Amino acid sequence: MASSDHPPARPPAPPPTAAPVTRRSFLRGSAAFGAVAGLGAIGGGALLTGCSSRERSGPVTELNMHHDAAVGPLFAPYVEYFNAHYKPLKLGTSYVAQDYLTVTNQQLAGGNVSYDVLSADEGYLESWSKNRWITSLDDLPGIGGLLADMNPGVADSLRSPDGKLYALPYFQGAELFAVNTEHLQKIGAGPPATWEEFLEQARELKAKGVSAVPYSPYWIKYAFLAWHQFAAECASEGGGDLFGQDAAPNLKGNAVARATLERWRTLYSEGLVPKDLLTTDYGGITNIFGGGKSSFSLRYQAQIVGWRDPEQSRAAKSIKNVLIPGRTRQTHGFGAHWMLSYAIRSREHAATAMSYLGGPGRDGSYHVPKNLVAIALGLSSGYKSVDRDPAVLASWAKWADVDALTEQLAKAVPLGPVTNKKWYPKFGDMACATLQEVVLGKKSPDEGLTEMSDFVAEQK
Amino acid sequence: MTAAVRSPRAARGAARRGDARFGMGMAAPALLVTVALLAYPLVYSFWVSLHDQTLGSRGRAEWVGLDNYRSVLTDPIFMPSLGRTVLFAAAVIAGTLLLGTVFALALNQEFRGRSVVRGVLILPWSLSQITLALTFGWIFNSTFGPLNGALKQAGVIDDYVAWFASGQVALTVMAVAFVWSLVPFATLLILGALQTVPEDLHKAARIDGAGPVRRFFFVTLPWIRDTVLVVAVLALINAFLAFALIYVLTGGGPGTETTLLSWWGYTTAFRDLDLGRGAAIFYLMTLAMVVLAALTALCIRGRSRKGRHE
């Protein structure tokens, strides 16, 4: 009611009768209160234990996809497309601003899930399937054809140890070496072919004042990146088999791993990498290389697409992907998945959204894998038919040296079945901290490698 | 017939017992809620800490007794984390008490615009911890932080300093940020206590020839000691529970150099999903805080008794 709408004048209310609170009247009231509070406590108990059996509201045609907020908004036109072409289905979005996997883990554990399809990096499939937080896709329509179209090794990475299929590919990435060609020209050098040559160039670039911090790698804990970068540099020297097929670690006494860590210590102690590199966030490191303040970096395709974009990167014109230095020039390959959560209300509708986001969709066009994953983000879709599509290859040529890219992707080495182990995320977290401690000189490379190896033995 | 005739003393006793029962009845609902909100989480978390339990797992929790505690206490991360947590808490308490007292003494003086200053002072306290962390992260950024810019322009440094490169410096920066956010609250509490100091005591001390410093240490400080202790305990508890600053600024790194017990508990319980071990870490933290709070209470009670006897 607006303040100008005065109510009609009323006679003054009689003074309240001062009814004294007797023990009897009070206890009678409190008994009723106690009953209400007791009922509330029962409901509250469910909240505290995270065992809420809350049903999702709304029609079953309303679906939700779950993603991190950094890349999630790129899906907006694809969500619109789905809503226009898949009526009456309606796809919504659910984003997590920071620490996506930790928060998603907590949501799944707490029963607070309102999404059907969710994305996740490798490393969560076994624990999530064992906890029954995701549902099997073995009965997905047309799954046989999809599996046949996947790149080698991809289908295996989507299965849990019990052999059931739990995911469709979101993307396949690889750590790619990038250089600032303008910086290298200033010292009259080309991209380094070996890590020794790289080290010499880095020292020269710093000594001549071309770049204060020649190398800006992602030795950070976020998304286990320090571990991924370590795996990439080990692979480049032919030491990519950090774990065997039985997930047994090959870290203790590993000469390539030790040499990699010694190089990291040298880079850090000589100031060839940013001093606060280990605590800088993802965007901070991205800006160092993109802003032309360093000469080398290492990251996956989607990041290089960003660095090559003049709107995002001051050094866009000078940045180029080249083969990673090293004896074998191999790198670390990894992937991310789409999964179906336990909170789906209609398996048929959820499978439709799943197939649209991580497969060919109803019309067989691979709309999202091709247009978003492969063309816009520059990543491998995980499907042969998409990655060989002329439109995709043409789009990669816009930001990449395609010859170097395809040669590097062919040399991408995945870590193998270990990434699906239940303890792998825990190991990734621990490995990042240990690698950082080695870089800081708190532990020797051998101590660090032994610690990681022992940790795995303990988990197994 | 004799039962109906009660002595006045017996009647007074019965009335007192009735009043006591009524009082307890009045307090019972609040007591029940308090017990439910405090006892249930405490007992449940202790139960969890005695089990091997994965967060959210539908499998049954397995009884492991004190294994989680043994595992935590023998973990190489534990002692350094505990040491860091205690040092961090000590720095936060010292800074909060010192600055809180100084500001409170200043605001206890009559000057123009005092009410405005009091209002402005409360602002840092109203900031969320995340905002605080982002603000300090920006100020101390090694590439574009204004602090580096100002120091370089003033000729204090030649090159930008990477403040978060060293765990010790990073922890110091975090302690500064924490103190900055806690000082307003400490100032308010101490200011409230300062305003209860009787002016007569100061007058008497002045007559005895005591200067401002002696009057502060021998008149003011003893009078506000209880409040100072409360502020110290609150600062200690807040410092033990520091989380957002680590989450935003360092992620516990470099390495584990800024890993405090709270962060370690969080990563164990919610990243590694090892709820049993995480609960053990948090329970040990809670116990430490209970012990410290009890010590403080004893201190205050001891002083009160001493005061009464005097």
Rg of chain B to the nearest angstrom? 26 Å
CATH architecture of the largest domain in chain A: 3-Layer(aba) Sandwich
Helix-and-strand structural type of chain B? mainly alpha
Count every helix of chain A, treating DSSP H or I runs of 4 or more residues as helices. 19
Distance between the termini of chain A: 67 Å
The portion of residues forming beta strands of chain B comes to under 5%
Identify the biggest protein-protein contact and residues per side.
A-B, 48 and 45 residues
Main sheet strand line-up of chain B: 1-2
> How confident overall, as mean pLDDT of chain B?
88
> Superfamily at the CATH H level of the largest domain in chain B?
MetI-like
Biggest sheet record of chain A: 6 strands, mixed
For the residues shown, what is the average pLDDT of chain A? 87
**What is the count of structural domains of chain A?**
2
SSE series of chain B: HEEHHHHHHHHHHHH
Anisotropy-based shape of chain B: flat
Number of strands of chain B: 2
Which regions of chain B have little confidence, pLDDT < 50, spanning 5+ residues? Answer: none
CATH fold field value of the largest domain in chain A? D-Maltodextrin-Binding Protein, domain 2
* Fourth CATH level, the homologous superfamily of the largest domain in chain A: Periplasmic binding protein-like II
CATH architecture of the largest domain in chain B: Orthogonal Bundle
